[in-house]
Amino acid sequence: MRYISTRGQSPAVGFTDAVLGGLAPDGGLYVPQDWPTFTKAEIAAFAGKPYAEVAAAVFGKFAGDEIAPADMARMCAEAYASFHHKAVVPMVQVGPQTFIAELFHGPSLAFKDVAMQILAKLYDHLLGRQNRKQTILCATSGDTGGAAVEAFRGASNVRVVVMFPEGRISQVQRRFMTTATETNIACLSVAGTFDDCQAILKDAFQDKSLKQAVDLTGVNSINFARIVAQSVYYFTTAVALGAPDRAVNFVVPSGNFGDAFAGYVAMRMGLPIQQIVVATNSNDILARALTTGRYAGGAVHATLSPAMDIQSASNFERLYFEAGGRDAADTGQAFETFKTAGAIDIPAAALAVMQRTFTGVAVGEDETVATIVSTLDETGELIDPHTAVAMAGLKHVALDGPTVVLSTAHAAKFPEDVEKATGVEPALPRGVASLADRPERFQRIAGDATAIKDYVRGFAEAASVDA
Asked: Distance between CA atoms of 65 and 86, rounded to whole angstroms?
């Protein structure tokens, strides 16, 4: 398997280099040169299989001959053994044709664990073969950072620096990062928004001197292995509901578009998906783009669903590239224009391709709160604000057939908002109940790319001395 950049100015690479590199050198995102596929019989055979076994089959298609099947099976088994539910991603039926897929049974209680746990195993395996150490720089709007810390804490070949926007994530989200005591972990509270953090991340990845000095890589959803990992639960949930003999709909609470694009990946591999509803909060760049064809940023509003408080969705570049016939020159020009002007118009033909699969819906704060309440009253399920955005979005569209709503975080990650809405305080699972009592360790820093790059360089050098 070979991987190419969406901007076409970097050479094709193998799976190892795509994973360890994260962002392509030309600023683009890696996608497969050719999409691997499953037959209908292969998809049907996933029914009843352990989650780790399905994950190994999906990853095997993308890793090719770079990772032996036995090694891939072992890594997947180890990664998903850390989950609190044996099904890894269980489903709960909440309506005649509606199911909630619970993606929050991992160590940090968020869907990011599904990808991050296996990514950590991949890094350990690939770096160990090369006798190499890397520095991960991560920007998080809430859940990616906690999942990265849980997955990589104590890793011998990886140093992790996590940036999060000051005051824009929940206390529980923050504590999953800042209570880590391992010396290979550093947390930065950045004065600014998640989009500011993400812009600094991209700036750092295009700094050749920094990349070389610290062997910089990223585990944000720009890393294609993250997308592959997230595509797995599209297969397991759809097959449980009758795929490949019938198509399934998905409703995805989305900010950075990675989780929704993972559904597109599953579809390209042969999974019959009828519609993917992309539900956003008031930071509705994706909903507007998919509806109007204009991809335009704006001021980031703080909401009850902070992981979606994003007005620049990195993974949208991958969909733009695919829907536009893989025109790398146009994609590169479009997203350079977006970087400088803050807006681009999606070509009509590409928009039509997107709209065949994706529907965008924006949900306000009042509707989010009302949906938390109504879901509890009608189904007995206590959901977090991000899941509530998806449940509310479902009410705005007419879908035919079984529909899976992706529940991306445990309600206990947002206890104040959930309790305010319902009067019910969501309890942390036993394994993380002591989180509130642990001391925090983080540094406040200006939202300045130079200052943060200097910090990353210094942290990596100090970690190398300690090692």
From this structure: 29
pLDDT digits (tens, 9 = 90+) for 320-369: 999 999 999 999 999 999 999 999 999 999 999 999 999 999 999 999 99
Residues 267-325 have pLDDT tens digits of: 999 999 999 999 999 999 999 999 999 999 989 899 999 889 999 998 999 999 999 99
Task: Tell me how far apart the alpha carbons of residues 459 and 135 are, in angstroms, rounded to a whole number.
Answer: 9
* Residue 37 to residue 40: CA distance in whole angstroms: 10
Measured distance CA(192)–CA(166) in Å, rounded: 7
Catalytic positions, written as ranges: 112
Q: How far is it, in rounded angstroms, from Cα 238 to Cα 78?
A: 24
Angle at which helix 194-205 crosses helix 449-466, to 10 degrees, equals: 60
121: tokens are 């195993």
Give residue for tokens 């539910």: 85
Per domain, the residue ranges of the chain are 91-109+224-422
Could you tell me if 319 and 264 are in contact, meaning their C-beta atoms sit under 8 angstroms apart? yes
The reply to whether the predicted model has a pTM over 0.70 is yes
Strands 91-93 and 98-102: antiparallel
**Alpha carbons 176 and 192: distance in angstroms, whole number:** 20
What is the Cβ-side half-sphere exposure of residue 428, based on CA atoms within 13 angstroms?
19
The Cα–Cα gap between 317 and 330 comes to: 11
Task: Taking each helix axis as running N to C, give the angle between helix 316-323 and helix 258-268, from 0 to 180 degrees, rounded to the nearest 10.
Answer: 40
The CATH classification number of 91-109+224-422 equals 3.40.50.1100
pLDDT at 23: 86
CA 106 – CA 373 distance, rounded (Å): 25
Q: How far is CA 253 from the centre of its chain?
A: 11
| pLDDT tens-digit map of 435-446 | 878 999 999 999
pLDDT at site 464: 64
**Contact status, residue 247 vs residue 305, Cβ threshold 8 Å:** no
Quote the CA–CA distance of 433 and 263 in Å, as a whole number.
Answer: 33
What is the rounded CA–CA span in Å between residue 205 and residue 456? 12
Ranges in the chain, pLDDT < 50 = none
CB within 8 Å of 249: residues ≥ 6 apart: 273, 274, 275, 276, 277, 399, 400, 401, 402, 403, 404
